[in-house]
Amino acid sequence: MSGDTTDWPDGAENIGSLFRLPSPVEELMDSRLEARGVRLLLKRDDLINPDISGNKWRKLKYNIQAARRRGYKQLLTFGGAYSNHIRATAAAGFFFGLQTVGIIRGEKHLPLNPVLAYAVEHGMLLDYMDRQTYRRKNESEVIESLRERFGDFYLIPEGGSNELALQGCAEIPNEITQDFDFICCPCGTGGTLAGIAAGLRGKQEAIGFAVLKGADWLNNDVLHLQEGAYGGPQGRWRINLDYHFGGYAKTKPELWLFIKDFEERHGLCLDWLYVGKMMYGIFDLVERRIFEPGTTIVAVITGPI
Ligand SMILES: *Cc1c(COP(=O)(O)O)cnc(C)c1O
């Protein structure tokens, strides 16, 4: 394991070499960027670990540490049937010796999809919650009934975005030794953006690309997450709502073409749920001269997996 190990969750020693931190920073050479005088650096959080996508690890790290320090034996969290967060939590529990419970929205479908099959293989206990109850999952009554069923647990919210998650994400900009003006990430719940913004220095600004349609509520959510974690707004940030391609897990032919072309040019396959949408947005904004010549942008490659 590289980097400072003192703030790692106990147990990390055992699996150390599996985590690649700080994650690499690579400049992307592309004639379309050169034509506009813009530099693009990729922060390769997708290379941190083969089982836990970059930003999910950033968000889980301090939560696992807290759970272990407070003596919890199990983690419980929520997610949809295709949730990267469910998969990552199962893997993290497996690595760090914590039992995991995944409460999945909706009904059970057999055979299990690859995400849920992976979770079960890594020791996660799955349980299903009807959509009506799922909407009330943060209410104490629902949490209490889960405690009665599963025993005591350390609770991680849906998507993993809580105060400790922000702390983990705030480390992303701190790992980048080169100067930059903007740092971009895809936005689901906004936790990653909220944390990244909190780690910025000087005039640096974070731009989140929403993958959900009409997600203007994200502005409030990011603010609330920062208030919860730091007592007030942190850093400069904004959210671009223009590149959702129809909404979560929706796509359009131009996105596929962009991803395919990007892979041919750079040998890097972008995931179409999150990173592909952000990268399309960055290239489109560059093309439209939104960034001045001489600008350096960092794109955080938060996944896949
Ligand atoms: C979950 C996920 C995101 C969304 O992160 P939020 O903190 O919820 O905004 C972005 N990229 C990838 C690859 C993800 O798996």
Automatic annotation (TrEMBL):
Q: Where is the Tryptophan synthase beta chain-like PALP domain?
A: 34-303
| Domain of life (superkingdom) | Bacteria
Which PANTHER family does the annotation name?
Answer: 1-AMINOCYCLOPROPANE-1-CARBOXYLATE DEAMINASE-RELATED
Supply the alphabetized keyword list.
Answer: Pyridoxal phosphate
What protein is this chain from? Pyridoxal-phosphate dependent enzyme
Task: Name the cofactor(s).
Answer: pyridoxal 5'-phosphate
- Family of this protein: Belongs to the ACC deaminase/D-cysteine desulfhydrase family.
Entry-linked InterPro entries: ACCD_DCysDesulf, TrpB-like_PALP, TrpB-like_PALP_sf
